[in-house]
């Protein structure tokens, strides 16, 4: 990506210098007039280079935007499962069903392993992934050490970690159209009620 920008700046600078020299230096203009084939080839290559780099940058931006949306969708899928696992473990009024919570946490772990490669390259998604992994580990520790509903201290720690996950998913969900974000926001609100 850096080499493309350096190339674009270099070609644009050469093009501007050639135009400035053609306008300001009579001997430069005379030389190009006498070597019209060379001038035509050089100008065609410069224009082609600028056009190629512009097209390349437009395509590259479109790919980055599409990839950002795909990463956001995958992160929201993981977020939804994280919310389900969290709810299965701590949001029940009675003691959580260890089989249900364990199953949800296992599904979350599988999703994390599957989604990690695509989430890792995006800085916002990487921060989200780190928080989900921390929360998943904490939920597993709570599930493996407590047979009843999590202690008040453990529930507070899990709630704080879930708040961090909520915070980290916000920039990712902002990448998507409003109708997709509203369904995720509704599920998050329902889980906290």
Report on this structure.
The chain is mostly helical. It folds into 2 domains: 59 residues, no CATH class; 126 residues, Four Helix Bundle (Hemerythrin (Met), subunit A). The protein contains 7 helices and no strands. Helix 3 packs antiparallel against helix 6. The longest helix is centred in the first third of the chain and has 55 residues. It starts with a helix and ends with a helix. The model has no long low-confidence stretch (mean pLDDT 82).
Summarize the entry for a quick read:
Helix content is 88%, strand content 0%. It is mainly alpha-helical and 193 residues long.
Radius of gyration, in Å, reads 28 Å
- The total count of strands amounts to 0
On the 0 to 100 scale, the average pLDDT is 82
Strand proportion, as a percent range, falls in under 5%
Order of helices and strands: HHHHHHH
Query: Which architecture name of the largest domain does CATH use?
Result: Up-down Bundle
Distance between the amino and carboxyl termini: 46 Å
Computed structural class: mainly alpha
Helix content: over 70%
Shape: rod-shaped
Number of domains: 2
The largest β sheet comes out as: none
CATH class group of the largest domain: Mainly Alpha
Give the low-confidence spans: none
The tally of helices reads: 7
Q: If you consult CATH, what is the topology of the largest domain?
A: Four Helix Bundle (Hemerythrin (Met), subunit A)
């Amino acid at each position: 990506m850096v080499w493309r920008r350096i190339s674009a700046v270099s070609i644009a600078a050469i093009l501007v210098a050639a135009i400035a020299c053609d306008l300001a230096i009579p001997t430069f203009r005379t030389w190009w007039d006498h070597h019209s084939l060379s001038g035509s080839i050089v100008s065609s290559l410069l224009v082609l280079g600028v056009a190629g780099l512009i097209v390349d940058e437009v395509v590259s931006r479109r790919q980055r935007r599409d990839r950002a949306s795909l990463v956001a969708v995958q992160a929201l899928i993981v977020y939804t499962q994280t919310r389900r696992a969290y709810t299965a473990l701590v949001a029940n009024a009675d003691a959580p069903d260890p089989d249900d919570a364990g199953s949800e946490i296992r599904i979350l772990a599988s999703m994390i392993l599957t989604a990690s490669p695509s989430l890792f390259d995006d800085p916002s998604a990487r921060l989200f992934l780190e928080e989900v992994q921390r929360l998943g580990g904490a939920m597993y520790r709570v599930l493996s050490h407590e047979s009843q509903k999590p202690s008040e201290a453990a529930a507070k720690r899990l709630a704080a970690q879930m708040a961090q996950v909520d915070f980290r998913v916000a920039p990712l969900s902002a990448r998507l159209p409003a109708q997709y974000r509203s369904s995720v926001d509704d599920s998050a609100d329902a889980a906290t009620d």
